[in-house]
Model the fold of this input.
Amino acid sequence: MPLARLKGFEKLTGVDDALRLFLKELKPAKLGVDCVPISEALERVVAENVVALGDLPSFDRSAMDGFAVRASDTFEASQFKSRLLKLTEKEIVNEGEASQVWTGGMLPEGADAVVMLEHTRKVNGEIEVLAAVTPGENVSKRGEDIRKKEVVVKAGVRLQPQHLGLLAGLGITHINVARKPKVAILSTGNELVELGQKPEPGQVVSVNQLILSAMCRQLGAETVNLGIARDNLNEISGKIADGLRQADAVVTTGGTSVGYADLVSIVVSKLGKPGVIVHGIAMRPAMPTALAIVRGKPVFILSGYPVASLFGFEVFVRPTILRLLGIEHEPRPMLKAKLTRRVASALGRRVYLRVYVLQKEGEFFAEPIRTKGSGVLSTMTKANGYVVIPEDREGLEEGETVIVHLFDRIGGT
Amino acid sequence: MPLARLKGFEKLTGVDDALRLFLKELKPAKLGVDCVPISEALERVVAENVVALGDLPSFDRSAMDGFAVRASDTFEASQFKSRLLKLTEKEIVNEGEASQVWTGGMLPEGADAVVMLEHTRKVNGEIEVLAAVTPGENVSKRGEDIRKKEVVVKAGVRLQPQHLGLLAGLGITHINVARKPKVAILSTGNELVELGQKPEPGQVVSVNQLILSAMCRQLGAETVNLGIARDNLNEISGKIADGLRQADAVVTTGGTSVGYADLVSIVVSKLGKPGVIVHGIAMRPAMPTALAIVRGKPVFILSGYPVASLFGFEVFVRPTILRLLGIEHEPRPMLKAKLTRRVASALGRRVYLRVYVLQKEGEFFAEPIRTKGSGVLSTMTKANGYVVIPEDREGLEEGETVIVHLFDRIGGT
Done:
């Protein structure tokens, strides 16, 4: 096996610089559009601004159960001095008339207000009004929710239930959403076996495939499973080339540490221009991450360590997928919490500290998870979020307020 | 049309009391178990504690690329005084020997530490060690991640990518998860037409079906679409009875306001015991919500107003679905934010205030959305979270710190 580089990385690139360099070179373009029924559009990303073709509601509606009237007919009415109005069933309310309406029902022509049922009495086909109403009272005006030509949902929005409701209300049955990016995932390493196979001594089950493809799906991407490649130039090269044919992006894990063969980055740079853009990031975990571009498609060369590959994905793959989907800004849910103990960190590295956030008597606390290295996946299942320790800090203090990025539910006591 | 109750609710029940009364009567039991491959288990809820059948890793592994050695052989080594070790390719490392290992590879018998590649030089088939290592250094010990018999994932956990990885690492290919609850959804109202139909004047497109079924799916429930029922006892009764046959829970919208006919709650109480448990909640929006149980199955009778039905779902349906899934505690993501302006609220009601949260210079601000009633769905698409104003407050102050429950992504500037 060739020992390409035996020394440590000569220079580590800062996280922000690495991502900026990479995205500048990649110029990720949106991937085209799917037109889907809105019943299937939950969590899809809107491809272009949706403009209302009409008002919502499309007519003046009653906001209450009661009687549609001309407000001026009620001005003198009170519980001490009722006003009698003639009950009409015609589609027009004239002076001195009232027409029964239900919540959400159309206001008849001529009427401009609704007297609540509770403020009326029915007396021999006449309506006794016991309270005055002002024009517009208890009426939802046409266009109150959305006005014609208004932008209802903007491009880049990930559709939530309430967006779907609004689109439906406007009679919109289909919507153009960003096509799902396809991400091909390859695990490399002689020691790996597929899930379901029994590992021999010295072998381990490949876990990154499953983790990273689940992370892709949570973002709304599809995945192509390229399986496992041995630590062999031809095998790795063939599988990555296959991934580049089938997918919009390729993610590999393993074979990135310096001193090892650096096989994957060698292979990728041979597959096409411009090849590896950055290798070695001033971060922890995931320092040996490499970012490459082959003929316009991104290739992410992540560590084989599960926690390191996970953070490599979080920091570099996630924002790239969001760009491909046309999303400008989609932070994970975050919150401020008090750190429950001091943690040390290395100056000059951006550290992603795993924490468990819980709510106790209305306050949020972040408990740092004791980590033993980036191979220990249970530190991720014990955590529900992470805190970013900046490059210019040597650690965080006990009791310090930190911003936690959540990847699982908040705990409680 | 019968006018069952013309007066307002005689007594409103508090939110906490209503939910407690209802759940006490319902005694929601878990719904049984599906055994699924872990590749399909993302976001499913674990049905029973998963226990490790072996250690992870299952053998001592090298945490670095380098040479496996006996630490005692290196104690005197330094960059000024190297120690020469004999390179061996046997599966055992004896005194004075070193064996090449790669990250993740099994430590050979006899070795108890790894010298990093960077701290060695290869000299004529011998290894010059330039740094001392202590026993265990650069070694991931067997069981370091998970120990045999340890609980790996607890019942009630909604599986995230990292959980799937850990299960895979332990060789677990399938997992028992809670069966997806089935929720049947019925919209009632003479004014409603299905999405795709052109509404006549006075008609509106039914939107609640789409909103509530999307909310169900986000929780991991399946839905049965019962369509639209006219305001007619037999039609409503038939469809709810159908829902009760097919599903674990029924949700209806419309026909709950007092003064109107209260048709749905009349129908539900006739369908079986114990019928309506609570009707009229001291909350805003969603005051006319009713909670019922028919032969052990929950029936949620929500307002026809989209925003009110959405909050009725949030406050009553959501926790019930979580119980059916076996989840004790799954709050939405939340955070503390500063309210940007004063809001008034009614004493004695719990108010769900829609807000838009954004992050500005590291601080979180919550901007109350100006609402015009619970029919205006665009107030929900403009918001990304809500704040609960307690019953004993008459409002919230400008600059006050509030807890926001997030239902969409945080904005930024």
Chain B touches chain A through 95 residues (CB under 8 Å).
